[in-house]
Amino acid sequence: MIIGVLVQLSNKNIDKVFDYSVPSELQDMIKIGIRVEVPFGKQVLEGFVLEIKDSSDLAVKDIISVKDEEVILNDELLELGKRIQSDTLATLISCYQVMLPKALKAKQGNVINKKFDTFYYLGDVNISDLKLNDSQQRIVDLVLEKGKVLRKEIVDISLSSVNTLEKKGILVSEKTEHYRLSYSDEKVEKFPLTSDQENVVNEVILDKHDVYLLHGVTGSGKTEVYMELIEKVIDEGKTSIVLVPEISLTPQMVKRFQNRFGDKIAALHSALNDGEKYDEWRRIVRREASIVIGARSAIFAPLENIGLIIIDEEHSDSYKQTDTNPRYSAKDIAIIRGEHYNCPVIMGSATPSLEVMARAQKGVYKYLSLPNRVNGKSLPSVEIIDMNQSMGRMRGHFSETLIKSIEEILEKDEQIILFLNRRGYSSFVTCKNCGHTFKCPHCDITLTYHKSSNTMRCHYCGYGTKVYEVCPECNEKSLNNLGVGTQKVEEELNNLFPNARVLRMDFDTTSRKGMHEEMINSFKNHEYDILLGTQIVTKGLDFSNVTLVGVINADTSLNIPDFRSSENTFSLLSQVAGRSGRSSKTGKVVIQTYNPDHYAISFAKNHDYLGFYNKEMEIRRILKYPPFYYLCFIRISGKDPNYIFGEANKIKRSLDRNLLHTSILGPSTCSVFKVNNVYRYGIILKYKKEDNLKVILEKILDHYKSNSNIKIDIDFNPSQIG
Length: 722
Ligand code: ADP
Ligand code: ZN
Known about the structure:
Blueprint: E1 2-7, E2 18-21, E3 35-40, E4 43-53, E5 61-62, E6 65-66, H1 75-88, H2 92-97, E7 116-122, H3 134-146, E8 149-150, H4 151-155, H5 159-167, E9 171-177, H6 195-203, E10 211-216, H7 222-235, E11 239-243, H8 251-261, E12 265-268, H9 274-285, E13 291-294, E14 306-311, H10 330-340, E15 345-349, H11 354-362, E16 366-370, E17 381-386, H12 387-390, H13 400-411, E18 415-419, E19 428-431, E20 448-450, E21 455-457, E22 464-466, E23 479-482, H14 486-496, E24 502-505, H15 515-524, E25 530-533, E26 546-551, H16 565-577, E27 588-593, H17 599-605, H18 609-623, E28 630-638, H19 641-658, E29 662-675, E30 678-687, H20 693-704, E31 711-716
Parallel strand pairs: 2-5, 10-15, 10-16, 11-13, 11-14, 12-13, 14-15, 17-27, 18-25, 18-26, 24-25, 26-27
Antiparallel strand pairs: 1-2, 1-4, 3-4, 3-6, 7-8, 7-9, 19-23, 20-21, 21-22, 28-30, 28-31, 29-30
């Protein structure tokens, strides 16, 4: 028996199937899609069995061992990997690895094992005949009473007695696999759907592949629609995937699913440790879980018989993998899997991405709409504060209007969310005398000031240094840290409203596992009056008592040099505004900005998605951006900037010669030119249809694949450029 093995080493030079022979004693265990260990040069590597055949033209070596009993990659996932490879031009092995929990990827250092529980029950003995000492008697009584007892419970009584009893055959043990996470099976009663929700549910045709856009304003009850459809799918014995932008930020959403579906849910949190992830993955493979909820990579959940895929907050850029290969979009994968299983894919959002909305308008996707809030209330009224006008009358970061609004809400004993927009923004240290700022010596990026440790850190490579006393440039003692941190705003709040209870939530305060959820619960229970936070507070929160949302600084995300900055700002403001007035109480929003006339802000004020969409589409058309053109970003990086720049120009010339229907921009320095002493140039391609593109790019990758001085990364439909 000969097998074709793809080894777990992502390198374009060896990214192909190698033949191995299988010793006769291992042949029975061989299946396509399991892992085996093989000799590879001087190393021993793990790889996936992709082919089984009778003979090979080459001299082949024996495999060393078989790693799995169960198939790790089924036929569907094996095909999917090939498709991703041809769509992204990444290595095939990286396309398989991205589907698997870390525990199954080769040699990650620590071996992650299954965990077991040991139970004891009574052996086949006549109890009245036994002569037992005290502790033995207590153990036997306990087992008699319960029938089956967890090892831990009786070891607590006496370990030696347990051992004696087991030796005598009075106790018999049994091991069962123990998953690291547990779920309650307690279910909560569901709401009757509103007629709007009912209509949407009825418009979705199950058993047929279509892509739907569910465009529903914040609080319109999209989640309830998802759950209703999932219930139908589950009743038919099928399975379902639900993607959310960042699962650790959406505990309320996960909770709602768990309340409704109990232990049918597998939740692939990023906060799970590797062992927990591995357990969840195996629960899915064993069909013990039929609904998977998770962030981007949950789209690869090894479910079979999928009946519905849901992508909530479809506009979120977290669905695109940008930093490593394969640079895939979970939305594309959802559609490929949806085609395979002939099932619907639903993308939901209050502020759909332009790409998805444009397809819905063309009829490529089916458009579903929930234009009203479930509570029948209108969306909260939004007041824009022009900070240029308020200059001089601000108290710290707070305008008079915002202060007054907060006071009113506090008086009514209602709650407030304050949002500090930190997208593309950070605190940094600068010299008031000479303007010197501190940059990372390895990366071309400003160091971020961390108050708690009084250090400056690089958010790219982790470099850190103490904050200096004097400026290294002019030797003046006039260093100053600029920028709004949540801690600073918290201090101001404490001064302005000494009686208000303020809860600060950002990535610093929520790093401990479970902390985020605890904070959300305590805010929900009204142990705090004001929730102050960064992006964390814009997503999926549903508090009935919040009637004021304040945006302290709307602008930072507008200033990012990215063609999507208006879209991102509009959607961010709409989302955060949507946290206000979600129950019977009417909500209000106050947005502070230096750009009150910017269309992203004025359309957000009026909750005018379509207005924004039309305006932004016009700009994209003129500037040849998506959704009118496709983009492809090529990053060329290496340690020697001159060499890299030279090669980047060669690549550009070759693209010019070969791509006749594409505009080619660059090479130019990336928005961060240097990271970890590696210099980066970018080339941007804009095209509508370019049949040759993949072939040409593949040739370029091939040309450089053995050159260790240069690295080429290709990102189709990038979520950001640079
Ligand atoms: P969205 O996901 O569109 O923001 P949600 O599904 O979170 O909206 O619904 C908003 C609020 O309305 C939630 O508190 C939810 O529990 C409630 N809700 C949703 N559907 C109904 C319904 N049919 N009847 C009563 N309350 C509902
Ligand atoms: Zn750095």
